[in-house]
Amino acid sequence: MGIKDVLLIVVPILSGIFGSYLTYYFTVKSKRNEAIFKFKEEKYTKLLILLKGFVGNTTSAELKRQFFDEQYKSWIYCSDEVVKSINDMIKLASTPAPSKEMGKEAVGNIVLAMRKDLLNKKTKLKYSDFIYTDVIEREDD
Fold first, then answer.
1. Residue 107: inside a domain, yes or no?
2. For 11-50, how does the pLDDT look when each residue is reduced to its tens digit (9 = 90+)?
C-alpha cells in the first residue's frame, strides 16, 4: 500500500470531518444570531412601547417608572448608540420645559438607533420619520 492509496483513504475522511465541523459551526452561529435578534427585538419593542410615558397625552409616571426599569436592564443588550440616545432623552426630560421638537428628536433618535442595531445599520430613515400618534378617546354626544 503506497502513499497514494493512503491519501485516497485519508483525504476524503478528513474532508468529511472538516466539512461536518464547518456545517455545525455555521449552524450554531446562525441559530445564536437568530436568538440574539429575537431577544433584542422583544426588548426594544418593550422599550418603545414604554416610551409612550414621555410623549403627548400618554405621559404617565407609571410608564416612566417601567421604562426606567427596562432601561437599566438595557445596558446588557443595547448597542452603544441606543444607550447614548436613551441617555440624551433622559437628560432632555430632566431639563425645565424642553421644546416639543427637541422631544420628538430625542424619541426619534432612540427608535432610529434601535432600528439601526436590528438592521445592522441599514436604514435610510431619519429621526424625523418616526411619528408618534396620540389616540384620543372622544365622548359621544
1. yes
2. 889 999 999 999 999 999 999 999 999 999 999 999 998 8
Give the mean model confidence (pLDDT) for residues 2-17. Answer: 87
Would you call 86 exposed, middle or buried from its count of C-beta atoms within 10 A (0-12, 13-18, 19+)?
A: buried
Kindly report the three-state secondary structure assignment for every residue of the chain. CCHHHHHHHHHHHHHHHHHHHHHHHHHHHHHHHHHHHHHHHHHHHHHHHHHHHHCHHHCCHHHHHHHHHHHHHHCCCCCHHHHHHHHHHHHHHCCCCCCHHHHHHHHHHHHHHHHHHHCCCCCCCCHHHCCCCCCCCCCCC
C-alpha cell at 66: 417601567
Total structural domains within the chain? 1
- Reading the block at residue 43, the C-alpha cell is 426588548
What's the confidence (pLDDT) of residue 60?
Answer: 79
Among 93, 105, 84, 110, residue whose Cα is nearest residue 59: 93
Is 96 within the bounds of a domain?
Answer: yes
56 assigned to some structural domain = yes
Find the domain containing 125 and state its range. 38-129
Could you tell me if 84 and 136 are in contact, meaning their C-beta atoms sit under 8 angstroms apart?
A: no
